[in-house]
Automatic annotation (TrEMBL), chains A, B:
Active-site annotation: 319 (proton donor)
Domain Beta-hexosaminidase eukaryotic type N-terminal: 30-142
GO BP annotations listed: carbohydrate metabolic process; ganglioside catabolic process; glycosaminoglycan metabolic process
Organism: Acidisarcina polymorpha
Domain of life: Bacteria
Alphabetically ordered keywords of this record: Glycoprotein, Glycosidase, Hydrolase, Signal
Lineage of the organism: Bacteria, Pseudomonadati, Acidobacteriota, Terriglobia, Terriglobales
SUPFAM superfamilies: (Trans)glycosidases (SSF51445), beta-N-acetylhexosaminidase-like domain (SSF55545)
Signal peptide interval: 1-23
A Pfam family this chain is assigned to: Glyco_hydro_20
Protein name, as recorded: Beta-hexosaminidase
Length: 680, 680
């Protein structure tokens, strides 16, 4: 047995062109990386005579998961496994789950599993079904081909998560997402072992959860786009079947304009209100001074608490700016008479009363940073959108916390940046005891600029890199290893139904009105969207803005950034790979030059792409820059002034155009610097 | 006003690379072609101030359709239209529907519409809502770009279908298709004006419709894959909203093994039975001699008739081989005592009794060819899987009929072949009166070799060409025009949710384990699946066979066949285009040669593609053949024997390998013949 350290696992095959086969000494891409893994000799062959044995009586959830696993493994291996026989003992796969699971999955549940594959068989053991589900996902990632046969390599894995709370938040208020979008994202979450779906169900722009007590919430506050109670229960069951808890969020007292459209009496200002198209912070807030407001909330929280069995209930609490309260004389008078010094203090008053309601219905309260105020009891959980420091402060005072800030996907940051951000970094000032208060983290997908067509490509595959941060050991910080595994995992993610690759491709076909828009692909592959903030400034986006531009068809941190960076590094190194890396680059640069001619025509025809015209010029120009750099490189023979000139071109190209930015400019600059090194 | 005859419309722009812009004198691709169309001057601009006026009070179905239309038009135009204001009069689009629709859409409903677009506005008028829905689809197809602006070209269209019954049958028994698959296919049907969804809900391999009277039908006869009654009602409503009737089929007395698994007593042979994995004809059949069978059918048909409001009820009736009846002494005795001379006559007996049951529940009976027997009343409808002749025979005797045989998609024939097959060909022997008995036709998608991942690419875009056959005038037989419009319509079809392009691409990524499997794309783009029958012979396919091979990732009649044919024709003509056509061909041939090297490695690694290895050799070889032909072409300088040698290579490549065939061999042979013309 060879023992793999975490660092050695970075030796996993670097095959961006195809990840099809692995050498006998390599393991397929696992993500998140297991805490410990050691590789054995040989492998277990996948054949049509595959069997499953349950060493302990399986529950319905486990057998359903095993059936899904076999169907997926059949698809990836091409071997008929989906109807594998269940045998009393000594199956190809033998599963034992030692303890019964609670009916409702808890934050402290044991999620560990032990997976041992030898040439003779596969053993999967865990304490809980959730642990077994994680093990099945690992098993799926292990399946590969060797010598033209489908196999599972011999391996022993003992695995458990670093953090208990590994969430994905989806905002379905700013743009609605139908149930099937939620379901495919739950499947994707399970694949990378995320375990909390945080469902942001209400905001100013829409109330998305059917209430039978208050039917106007959706009848008047949702434009008809909402989940029925049956659908919400279905999502909870679907998530539970995949080892995922569902935490609903009803954001209050701010972000409640949609509530007030339906029930103006609970608001602080007088209506009538209408659902806003505008995003951003609205002044409207619930009236915290009237008992009728709490009566309403008691009924609503009670109704929703019955639909969502999880122990936690998210009350939002963010971005309540106090304007509506300050402008209402009755509320001002209430504050004076109750000795409430400002609107922050009034929100503390509101939170204290809300906390009692949430607790009455058997739930722990979670809220965003703003709910973290002295005086609230220690069983609330703070979700930090402000960041590391805010979270540490809460943890130092004994509050449990979840980190969200560095995992905001609409910032359009790289997978690398998200991956390296740690809920408890190595240099944390927290004591080991305080560190335990950090439950984990949450990926946050806000929905101002996404819709069902684009959401998957905004979440995935970047969320897989974050999932690894939440699960794998702190020492796992090798970015090259992460990217090397991210692309094959990205392909796995589409087999469970995600459209993060096919969706953007479809949109490019639609933009180009061509079944094979090769040149537009060339351009799109090296562009990514600007951040939420830049887009918001650059283009007025509200709820009615069509999300159908080039910026919507390109994806954040596409493979081109990493590929170019690797190629440039290889091209500049004196290794054997330098020659072929330079040829790869040359072809790439040439393809940019070649694509530009067609693209000029294409883009001029379409009002949806007209603003991208400068990008086409730049692509050709930057391609020329690259070609010149490669020519100059061997002897560093670039003429005087060339480097400065090219740098200027690159700097110009770094500006936002058509709400996009190029992915490769840093690498190209490196190449230019190297090629122009001899000059001065 | 220029008046376009049907033939002149074949001048529609031939732009396979991109269909983005049209010249002022061209119209965007319409499919099916309207019966009459005349083009005006100028166009109506699409802007964010678009409004809709209803000249007659719209019903819920119409307003929902208009909203969907605006959302789709917003997506294709990039102009914010989805929330267009409804104004009392003089809208950008003014719609009038003169008559009320019946609650249930009928086979004789008026589906005509009048659409007039001028620079001042758009008028849509029809007798029924269904007519208006068709007009809205035409309007969507008309939207395009001119001079960088989104517009609708000025046009006057008076349109109506040639046939009343334009169906798509989907078999959900052999492989189950979830509701969302059905829904997206209904959207696609509406786009090309198909109006009957024939739902083949039961067969030997599965009973897919929940019965509350006979719950074991799905509990034991469906492997858990079935539609609830709520889901079936949802599908009926979804179809109705799109102008589509739903005709359920419960195939009997044969093809009922799944029924007998659940209720063995209704069978002719003794059980126990189990759901078969094997396809093909099974001997089992209902027992037509016992009254209890008819009592069962009465209850079942009654229950289903209440779910499906359509006037027609399909009872299948095909491929009952009589073996089960002949082997049951009681049935043989019954035949003797009732003077029933053979099993065909026994089926007539069964059908007569069944007909009464179907009629009792208010439905007309439809059945496959086999139900066409003397003595049955004239209000039954014959669906012909046997073909033209069988249909004509029935029509000549006064029976109404629907043609299905030439539209069997699993034959993997070209769109051209399907398009040219006519339910009432120009040389028909039927009198005009008899011709009226031919209600129309149905595209048939049998499901032995498809699943939810592949179904769309098997149906579409070929079904769009057939939809044109059913809708447009008989004189519309220009194959080049049809293909020229088929590809842009194919792109429209994916905007309503079809995965016919993205699905195969995803599968190729999965096969190659690469995000950009360019070389595999090159191979796949010139391959298509062999027919159902060839596949059945070449590979034992049953219900458990994974459908995840190269054959499943390639599509029938991909663009390469038509593109190659056109390029070769141009290259061989003495026109100005010959030079560029030869260059296009040269690049294509070279890409085959180049791809082969990578593909050899890729294919050898994967057991799912191993059988395609010969195809890679052939691709390189045929690429060389093409390159040599192009070189020899100008002076026809190919050496002696070359033509014979290449012809042999082409013939060898025509054989089925890996369940696939090449799309371009006829065109390549043509090129070879031309290049080798001088040689003896």
């Amino acid at each position: 047995m060879k023992h793999f350290s975490l660092l050695a696992s970075t030796a996993l095959a670097l095959m961006l062109t195809s990840h099809l086969a692995i050498a006998a000494t390599e393991l397929p891409a696992l993500m998140p990386l297991p805490s410990t893994i050691s590789q054995g000799d040989g492998s277990f062959p996948l054949t049509a005579s595959f069997t499953v044995a349950y060493a302990t009586p399986p529950d319905e959830r486990l057998t359903a998961a095993v059936n899904r696993t076999l169907t997926r493994m059949q698809y990836s291996s091409g071997v008929a496994l989906a109807h594998a026989a269940v045998v009393p003992s000594a199956g190809s796969l033998t599963i034992s789950v030692s303890g019964p699971d609670a009916a409702v999955q808890g934050v402290d549940d044991d999620e560990s599993y032990h997976l041992a594959v030898t040439a003779q068989g596969i053993q999967l053991a865990s304490t809980t079904v959730v642990g077994a589900l994680h093990g099945l996902e690992t098993l799926l990632q292990l399946a590969t081909f060797r010598d033209g046969h489908a196999i599972i390599p011999a391996v022993t894995i003992d695995d458990q998560p670093r953090f208990r709370w590994r969430g994905l938040m989806i905002d379905v208020a700013r743009h609605f997402e139908p149930v099937e979008v939620i379901k495919r994202n739950l499947d994707a979450m399970a694949l990378v072992k995320l375990n909390v779906f945080h469902w942001h169900l209400s905001d100013d722009q829409g109330f998305r959860a059917e209430s039978k007590r208050f039917p106007k919430l959706t009848a008047e506050g949702s434009h008809g786009e909402f989940y029925t109670q049956e659908e919400m229960r279905e999502v909870v069951a679907y998530a539970h079947a995949r080892g995922i808890r569902v935490v609903p969020e009803f954001d209050m007292p701010g972000h409640t304009l949609s509530w007030q459209v339906a029930y103006p009496d609970i608001g602080s200002t007088s209506g009538p209100f209408s659902l806003p198209d505008r995003f951003g912070i609205h002044d409207e807030a619930l009236d915290p001074t009237r008992e009728s407001t709490y009566k309403f909330l008691d009924a609503l929280v009670g109704e929703m608490a019955a639909i969502f069995p999880d122990a936690y209930f998210h009350i939002g609490g963010d971005e309540s700016n106090g304007n509506a309260w300050r402008s209402n004389p009755k509320i001002v008078a209430f504050m004076k008479s109750h000795d409430i010094k400002d609107t922050d203090a009034l929100q503390v008053y509101f939170n204290s009363k809300l906390l009692k309601i949430v607790a009455k219905h058997g739930k722990h309260m979670i809220g965003w940073d703003e709910v973290f105020t002295p005086g609230l009891p220690k069983d609330i959980v703070i979700e930090s959108w402000r960041g590391q420091e805010s979270l540490s402060k809460a943890a130092a005072q004994g509050y449990q916390g979840i980190l969200a800030a560095p995992y905001y996907l609409d910032g359009m940051a790289t997978a690398e940046k998200h991956f390296l951000a740690d809920p408890v970094p190595a240099d944390t000032q927290l004591t080991p005891e305080q560190q335990k208060s950090v439950l984990g983290g949450e990926v946050a997908m806000w929905a101002e600029q996404i819709n069902p067509q684009t959401i998957d490509s905004r979440i995935w595959p970047r969320a897989a890199a974050i999932a690894e941060r939440f699960w794998s050991p702190q020492s796992d910080r090798d970015v090259e290893s992460m990217y090397t595994r991210l692309w094959p995992v990205s392909l796995q993610l589409e087999t469970v139904g995600l459209t993060h690759i096919s969706g953007p491709q479809k949109m490019l076909r639609n933009l180009a009105q061509s079944q094979q828009p090769a040149d537009l692909d060339t351009l799109a592959s090296v562009l990514e969207p600007v951040s939420f903030h830049e887009r918001y400034q650059g283009q007025h986006t509200d709820a009615r803005t069509p999300l159908d531009r080039l910026v919507d068809a390109v994806v954040p941190d596409p493979p081109s950034r990493f590929e170019m960076s690797r190629s440039v590094n290889e091209a500049l190194a004196d290794g054997a790979a330098a020659g072929s890396a330079r040829e790869v680059l040359r072809q790439r640069f040439q393809s940019w030059v070649d694509a530009a001619a067609t693209l000029n025509t294409l883009i001029s025809l379409s009002p949806r792409m007209a603003d991208a015209a400068p990008r086409v010029q730049q692509l050709a120009q930057l391609g020329q820059t690259g070609l010149q750099a490669l020519k100059a490189l061997p002897g560093k023979t670039a003429p005087a002034g060339w480097r400065e000139q090219q740098t200027q071109i690159i700097n110009e190209a770094a500006k936002s155009v058509a709400l996009t930015r190029f992915t490769f400019l840093l690498s190209l600059q490196k190449l230019v610097d190297a090629a122009g090194g001899a000059i001065q």
